Amino acid sequence: MKIEQIYTGCLAQGAYYIQSGNEAVIIDPLREVDSYVEKAKENGATIKYIFETHFHADFVSGHVDLAKKTGAKIVFGPTAKTSFESYIGTDEELFEIGEAKIKLLHTPGHTMESSTFLLIDEEGNQKAIFSGDTLFIGDVGRPDLAVKSDLTEEDLAGYLYDSLRNKIMTLSDEIVVYPAHGAGSACGKNMSSETWDTLGNQKKTNYALRTDMTKEEFIKEVTEGIMPPPQYFAKNAMMNKSGYESIDTVMETGTVALDVETFEAMANHEGALVLDTRHQSEFVKGHIPNSIFIGIDGNFAPWVGALITDLKQPIIFLADSGREEEVVTRLSRVGYDNTLGYLKGGFSSWKAANKETDTLASITPQEFEKRMNQTTLNVLDVRKPGEFEAEHVDQSATFPLDFINSHMDEVNPDTQYYLYCAGGYRSVIASSILKSRGIHDLVNVELGFKGIIETGIKRTDFVCPSTLK
């Protein structure tokens, strides 16, 4: 029997390939599915089932395309309803894969259709669970993502408590836990950077599996401190329920090389958003006016999903040479399928055509310290609220990038602002958004709070009552 975890760091997501004999299954596939088809071919196997642990909210699954390309049956847990052909399993139903079996365990709580898949090997031994967002390493799934449901997050947390104790914790300690996500995902609060563990160790170390915890205590602890879900979560969940455009079509239309004149016309007259995916240091030195920076080498897809509010928004982009397909792929993973092409020759071709360019003022932490000591500055901390509360530059105001779209009225076009984040990536994203909306007197602090700490600038660890206006 073969078990392979296929982990994608930018989404903190784990898909799984399982094979017994000449039959294979895929659990929670990513949008681009050719690698799964090729893997099965290389191993002389046929993909029989595509198991979905739930309707994912943080990415668009590849289940629909994979089923079309392989003839495999898509399997969801009880209560799931889809707009495409799928099989809705029942609790404790067995599925045969070669000489092995997979048992569906209905584990509602993260969502009502959420299910855990228990792998039973050729000798009849229970080997592993593929727990989706029901159980993470060190955490459990957030209970506030039900789509169009009259259930409260407290209701779902109660279901999750029962699922963990009645379906998961009764299993053997030796069983391996393979979750759908690890650290960095917004589907939980405090996930471990480890991507698998034994169930026995999780019983010892995972707060949510404490045997002395009452249901009321569990509900309180699981629901406290949850950040609002990114705006694209509900939209991705609906795509996973309803289906979507073929990834092949998305790639074909999204990787068209556009000359400067066509690119400019799309931006100025057709409402296309110009997305700059280069490194932040390149964007600072020069970029197309009104373009939005979200660098491909950061948490690209989650930030696109959090900040670009319309999944159907036409997008044209700049990318480093050779990375164009990567950009379109990663956009499609979170449902942005209306990519129309990229600037042929990149920013160099734009400059060569004598088109208008813009820059972003950027200073070192040392220069920032010098200016802080000379006068009072308007400083925006664009990190998450929890990061700000832990420690921040004295007299700075919290202005989280996560919620920038709903707080634009708090900034003044006539005021100069200094922006910093943790390392210099998010502050450039925030600056690009502000500049695109008419806030131009901005100064980015390079290296962010990590660099600032080394300067000795006065910092505080409580939320100061400062306001932006």
Secondary structure: elements and pairs:
Blueprint: E1 2-8, E2 13-20, E3 23-27, H1 34-42, E4 46-51, H2 63-70, E5 73-76, E6 87-88, E7 94-97, E8 100-106, E9 115-120, E10 126-132, H3 153-168, E11 176-179, E12 197-198, H4 199-205, H5 215-223, H6 232-242, H7 247-254, E13 257-258, H8 260-269, E14 273-276, H9 280-285, E15 292-293, H10 300-307, E16 315-318, H11 324-333, E17 339-343, H12 346-352, E18 361-363, H13 365-374, E19 379-381, H14 385-390, E20 392-393, E21 397-398, E22 417-420, H15 426-436, E23 442-445, H16 448-453, E24 459-460
Parallel strand pairs: 3-4, 4-5, 5-6, 10-11, 13-17, 14-15, 14-16, 16-17, 18-23, 19-21, 19-22, 22-23
Antiparallel strand pairs: 1-2, 2-3, 7-8, 8-9, 9-10, 11-12, 20-24
Helix pairs in contact: 3-5, 7-11
For the biggest sheet, the summary is:
6 strands, mixed
The CATH class assignment of the largest domain is: Alpha Beta
Number of helices: 16
- N/C terminus separation: 62 Å
Total beta strands:
24
Describe the structure.
By secondary structure, the protein is an alpha/beta fold. It has 3 domains: 2-235, Ribonuclease Z/Hydroxyacylglutathione hydrolase-like (Metallo-beta-lactamase, Chain A, 4-Layer Sandwich); 245-352, Oxidized Rhodanese, domain 1 (3-Layer(aba) Sandwich), CATH 3.40.250.10; 361-460, Oxidized Rhodanese, domain 1, CATH 3.40.250.10. Helices cover 30% and strands 21% of the residues. The strands form 5 sheets. A 6-stranded mixed beta sheet has the order 1-2-3-4-5-6, with helices on one face. Strands 7-8-9-10-11-12 form a 6-stranded mixed beta sheet. Strand 9 (115-120) and strand 10 form a beta hairpin.
